[in-house]
Design brief:
This protein is mainly alpha-helical. The chain is about 85% helix and about 0% strand. The protein is built from seven helices and no strands. The longest helix has about 35 residues, at about 1-35. It is globular and about 50 Å long.
Length: about 210
């Protein structure tokens, strides 16, 4: 248990720079969008972008979670279940719940939009294809590192666009707090999904 805990802490430390860089890139993209689009069209454009990045986040999360478990344990049904729960549950926390709470703390009225319930046919194909990709990726560390890096970048975009789509349209005056909340929104659920969650169910050997 001590060795596994140390491994998880080391993984979290390694992936923190991915998260900070990805949130910064996401905020730059949001800044460009804010300047280029009129205020009355900004919310709709942000929602459209959220509905692009959230399903892609599900795809990469399911891939990374399934691949991480599959590298250590070759039980198919268990891997599918872990990929499903890890992607849907933890992506929902990252993309929806934490931005929703962040908006509340920043003093705006947020609208709760749960994409897998509102638009299941948008989300589920990405989810199941992501699980499939988790099985077919080469069983090497580089595959999970690549999918995790893509996962973190896309998660940053999804979380930021949810925050501004469903409540915080005037985000620039509180940009510093947005940065902090979005780092938390990405780092905690994504690293839990990709690293901690699948390793908790790996059968210990020896």
């Amino acid at each position: 248990m001590k060795t596994q805990s140390r491994h998880i802490l080391e993984e979290l430390q390694k992936h923190l720079p991915y998260t900070i860089f990805s949130v910064a890139v996401g905020m730059m993209a949001l800044g460009v969008l804010t300047v280029l689009i009129e205020a009355k069209k900004f919310s709709q454009a942000s929602q459209d972008l959220f509905h692009i990045f959230h399903p892609l986040h599900i795809l990469f999360s399911a891939t990374a979670t399934t691949a991480m478990f599959w590298r250590h344990d070759k039980k198919i049904l268990k891997a599918v279940s872990i990929g499903f729960v890890g992607a849907v549950g933890l992506c929902g926390i990252s993309d929806i719940f934490i931005p929703f709470v962040a908006g509340y703390f920043l003093g705006v009225k947020m609208h709760l939009h749960i994409c897998i319930l509102a638009d299941p046919m948008l989300v589920l194909p990405f989810l199941f294809f992501g699980i499939f990709m988790g099985f077919v990726l080469p069983a090497v560390a580089e595959s999970t590192i690549f999918s995790h890096a893509a996962h973190v970048l896309i998660s940053s975009m999804a979380s930021i666009f949810y925050l501004v789509s469903f409540g915080l349209t005037e985000w620039i005056p509180v940009g510093g707090m947005v940065f902090i909340y979005m780092v938390l929104a990405v780092m905690i659920p994504c690293c839990t999904s990709d690293i901690i969650f699948p390793l908790l169910f790996v059968k210990k050997k020896g």
